[in-house]
Fold this sequence. Notes:
Layout: E1 2-7, H1 20-29, E2 33-38, E3 43-47, H2 53-68, E4 74-78, H3 79-88, E5 99-106, E6 118-119, E7 124-130, E8 133-139, H4 150-157, E9 161-165, H5 166-178
Antiparallel strand pairs: 1-3, 1-4, 2-3, 5-8, 5-9, 6-7, 7-8
Amino acid sequence: MKYVALLRGLNVGGNNLIKMDVLRSLCEAAGLKNVKTFLQAGNVTFESNSKNPALIAAKIEKQMLASMKREMKAFVLPLEYLTKITRRDPFKRIEAGDVMLCVVFFTGEPAQSPKLPVRSTDNLELIAVHDGAAFVVARRKPNGWFGFPNGFVEKQLGVIATTRQWSTIKKFVAFAEKE
C-alpha cells in the first residue's frame, strides 16, 4: 500500500535539520520500501505491507529518536486519503488573492469542536474540519508576514498537528502518484 508521512517540525526555521538522503535512509531502516522525499520539509512517500498507519508512524518516530536524539511526530496517511482531499478541494470557494491556504493534519479526534469559522487575532481563519484535517486561510498581517496556523489549530481543537500549504499538498500528491 502506498503511504505518505508528514514529519512535524523538520527543517523549520533552522531547527531539527536533516538532509533528505538521511531521512530516506531512516525510513528504509524502519522497514519502508520505495522511499522518496519531497522538498526539504519532512514529506515522504513510501510503500508498506502494513495496514496500520499508527504502527508505521511509531517505527518512523523510533528511528528519528535513535538518529536525532529527539522526539519527532510522524503523521502517516494513505496516499488515497490525500488524493481524496485534493479532489474535494475545501478551498474552492476561497477567492484568490493575498492569502496562504493551509491544511493542518492531526491524529485522533479533536478534543473540541468549535463553531466554524473561527478567526484568530493573527489573521487566521479556520474554515473547515473533516477527514482528520483542518483547513485554514491565512491572510497577510500588517508586518507583511502570514500567520502560521499550527498552534492556533492545536489550541482550538485540542490536538497535536502538523501543517502544510495547500499548494504543497497538491504538488506532493502529484509527485507521489507518479512515483
